[in-house]
Structures
1.
Amino acid sequence: MDINIEMKKNMSQKSKLSILILVAVLITNPVYAATQTGLSSTLITEWHSSVDRKACPDFRYPANKPSTVAGEPVYKANCASCHGETPIKSVEAVALMRKTSPEKQFETVCGGKHNFAKTLTVDERWNALQYMRTQILGYFPVGSEQAAKMDAIFGGNCAICHGTRGQGDGNLHKMLLPEPANFTMFKRLYTRSDERLFNEISYGIPWTGMPAWKDRHDFDKQQDFTPELIWDLVNYVRGFGYVQEINRLDVGREKLMEYKKSVGEIK
Ligand code: HEC
Ligand code: HEC
């Protein structure tokens, strides 16, 4: 009898210890990620727009994925005089652009000294801004060797959760709560600065399935997750949110306008 009780006592102490260790691991991992990224729990998936609607009354997220090709002539005609014929890509310009979110950059273009709300449509502003961002921060030209390399790295490490098209629909997505981020969702991704995405990829996101990638090694592609690669991944992830061709929906709209004019429906 007594021995039995003694054994039970020992057992329960052991299992208590292992539970303690498990809890310690469960807490320290997210706490590490939280201290590195400055984020608290993201279990409640919220993304608040911090655009000042007074500074930019007609603010809205783009109707279609912005097009860098459509943005180039708008940029050349309206922005090049100050920002350079090809956008000036200094260390300072890169650092500045990584610090603020795309929606805050849109706000800058909207009012104040820029004041393009008067002369450019919302889509023209998004296109010009996206052109500027890709020229300063980097992008992977469709069909290039770099694009193929990044397809392989994203495909081998991230697509299992985020999906090959970045829509958060990878094979594992149903098993995760919160679900993997959908990178084509403007109202989410445009509230994030590139710096924040960099930190999230580097250190993971506390209390979610998003792992930390800093200092890992991809044995398949013989590639270390260096800061350079993580910045490339930030650019790659951003790439799901714009197109490098004329958006077919925009062409469709132009054709429709031409047609409406030809039948006298609009002037
Ligand atoms: C009259 C000159 C001028 C014109 C034209 C101009 N900008 Fe600017 N822009 C500036 C100045 C000056 C700054 C502040 C730069 C700084 O803080 O280093 C700025 C800042 C910005 C920023 C914020 C930088 C960042 O990284 O957050 C964005 C974005 C921007 N401009 C986009 C545009 C776009 C897009 C156009 C064209 C549609 C445009 N600008 C036209 C002068 C101009
Ligand atoms: C095991 C599943 C999983 C893998 C693998 C994974 N992620 Fe994630 N990722 C997630 C989840 C889940 C979230 C959403 C967390 C949240 O909602 O806070 C996320 C969020 C993100 C975010 C933050 C988006 C935002 O809105 O701030 C980025 C950026 C990201 N992942 C990039 C990557 C990259 C790049 C890779 C590959 C190197 C990768 N992820 C691999 C599960 C994964």
2.
Amino acid sequence: MPRIYIETFGCQMNEADSQYIADRAAAAGYDIAVKPEEANVLVLNTCTVRDNAERRAYGRMNHFKVLKEADPDVRLVVMGCLAEQDRDRMQHLAPHVDAVFGTKELVELGDRLSEWRPSLADLAPDDDDASERALIMPLGGSADAVTDAFSHLRGFVTVQRGCSYYCTFCIVPHVRGRFDHRPMREILDEIGSHVAAGAREVMLVGQTVNAWKDPATGEDFGDLCTAAAALPGLERLTFISPHPKDFTEKIIADLASVPQLNARVHLPLQSGSDAMLRRMNRKYTRAQFEEKVALIHRYLPTWAITTDIIVGFPGESDDDFEATLDYVKTGVFANAFMFIYSIRRGTPAARWEQVPADVSSARFARLVEAQNAATRAYHDRKIGTTVRCLIQGPSKKDATRLAAKTLDNVTVIAPMPPDYDETLYAREPWLDIAVETAHVWGCTGTILRRAERFADAGGAVARPVISLL
Ligand code: SF4
């Protein structure tokens, strides 16, 4: 059987798109490859949100050139935002790429995989081929859409694509187009199929997810979550990534009446300075952002708020930066994705005078230090408590431990119980973990119980036998 290898850069939207391509490929008769050297078709799902992501994608295309040189039958496909943005340029920079599919051409890519399937049937590389290819150059990389015993526990459902807000730093509206909202019925059906396949948690994904409106009825994001909550068997629901402007009091009040929602919300601040927010075209002031935070605290008092912050945006003065830093120091955010501004071709901010790199780096270091202290304090508060987490599987850094995520998205690592068995723990994936230590990255603890369903009390896990000799 031919094999397809998929590697994804960027956001959850890209992850959801990669999953769609993997599902289409599997339906067409492909196996999902874990390593690039084992595959007939290599798919790079690219991102342009930062310069670094773009350079890594081109670097990866060059790595894969050696596989095509070793075996001209291997096909290299580029999809995602860079494919949309650089369609013509890519032909010069990476002429060995066989096909390019933009963000609105997922269905066409799925169709192309089906067309290729018969001609690839006899060409699947065997283990010797794969070893030979691996010897040419270590390719590394981490494959996406590779299913393991726990993959089905989390489902991703795209509810809207594109964005019409045109923040001056962002390439998304240029490469993904304007808002395009899926009908509620389609979304609910897809959530239902994930639940039927065993998902314990479903994440609603969209570039500005809470701007979603049903194209026919005008129902809003609060209505969508309320309707999803009524689906039989849905245990947990979560969403990413909302825009502060689109959180009305009505939507937040609706979320408060959905018991399945995970207690977390990602609320991208970007800057704590009004002057910067205006230049970024963020469509809210600092005071309006704080009003949204106050609404969340009022209706959803246990929820963790996380954020995105850009440092060194063109025109950012010391005072602008201090405004951001002061706000972060209040500890309002449980965690934050922090970035130094990176020029994106084709966006207004790319043409503006840039903040010197050393100034941005110094500000960034101060911001990270402040947020890390807040994050650590947030994690410290879990010590001595027992948290219910959804298993992820063996820890990537230490196979003797299990990794899991709390409802507020904190990673918890715990020693693997003696009765650990993949099938059993995939069937009973909710873990109660007694938290013992906290770090900036998450917490560690001991697994006490496991449960099949979120609402179940669960049964005790086996404990290690301690020798007193
Ligand atoms: S809201 Fe702004 S940052 Fe978010 S996708 Fe739209 S343009 Fe980009």
